[in-house]
Amino acid sequence: MRIGIVPSLKPHDGGVYQYSLTMLHALAEGRDKRDSDEIVVFAHDAGHPAVAELERREGCSVKPFRPPWKAERSAVLQTPRNLDEVLPQRDMRQWYHECGIELMVYPNPHRLSFETGIPYVMAIHDLQHRLQPQFPEVSANGEWDRREYLFRNGARHATILLADSEVGTQDILDCYGCVGVTADRVRMLPFLPAVTEARTSSQAERRTIQDRYGLPERYLFYPAQFWPHKNHILVVEALGRLKKHQDLRIAVVFTGSHDGTLREQAFARMMATARLYEIEERVHFLGHIPDEEIAALFTGATALVMPTFFGPTNIPVLEAWSCGCPVLTSGIRGIREQVGDGGVLVDPNSTAAIADGIHRLWTDEALRASLIERGRRRLALYTRADYGQQLEAIMEAARQRVVAARAALATS
Fold this sequence. Notes:
Elements: E1 2-5, H1 15-33, E2 38-43, H2 49-55, E3 60-64, H3 90-98, E4 103-106, H4 112-116, E5 120-123, H5 128-131, H6 143-157, E6 160-163, H7 166-176, E7 186-188, H8 203-213, E8 220-223, H9 232-246, E9 252-255, H10 261-276, E10 283-285, H11 291-300, E11 303-306, H12 315-322, E12 327-330, H13 335-339, E13 344-346, H14 351-363, H15 365-379, H16 384-411
Parallel strand pairs: 1-2, 1-4, 2-3, 4-5, 5-6, 6-7, 8-9, 8-11, 9-10, 11-12, 12-13
Helix pairs in contact: 1-16, 8-11, 9-10, 9-14, 12-15
């Protein structure tokens, strides 16, 4: 079968970018075992190293994201007033047909899935616009309608949907069972750590990174874009509280983007909070850093501190476990099940709870060592081989559904 995929190839996309790379590699490896398939990558960036590597494999090819006869960027696509109305993209449907595509894969929800009418497998990573619409990044300025149009129709028309967990599966069924999504069309494909393999950096590597960015010997680490739901402000408030009440001067390292109005505002509020508590010199913002430096930052950190409001599960937790870094994160539905006993779980609404969790991790070496070991045990429960086998089973189920639908159409 000729299978197309539209990966996210922008590092600024964070977890979606890493998820796309993981799936690209797994599809290519699966293709090596099933040489009757062909994999076609529709890439915005054909020069991306992962795409170039895949193109060198037999049975894999790369096509421009847009058809060559329509290379110019189209006008911004609108969201219809009636969110159940599908706005067809006939030029893209024609492009997929010209490329002989029989099944598409979308590692991230994309309106092309249902607007082109080609059978597809699509991942739904979260439905926070339905679950927590109070956060402006999923609801303000038309964002709720845009997301609902995308997810409702993407779920309704999918051949198979991918969820990261049992909680994610239940969210999809709860939100879109009303449009015909049934349990047999939702399959679990849990995340893998973005760091390609479990490793710890050498002391020399860690020292190089610390010197390069002017970091102290000990620090907390939080790699996340500055969306309000990431909760950077309460991390800084917790550090201010620890300075005031415990005389602990703890540094934190943030990476990620703060471009765009909402993220700029969140970043500005965080820095204003740091100044209020007079700890701005302890807040280190590195922006986007090369992928190869992530492991050293995790390995050198005293702990990952990630009191996010969004789940159901999160890749940085897995990255921390992979690099032997203790974890503090939110004790909320989804994340609670992902982490189990492998981290300190806190109420993300409570500065006091976050501060208490940080204090425990910062001052208790035995606790850190225990969490590192528990994290490694939990990570070992689901390997890259498991992921590859699970993805192949999902793709086989999708192939069978496409063939069956084609046969039914032929006899109707």
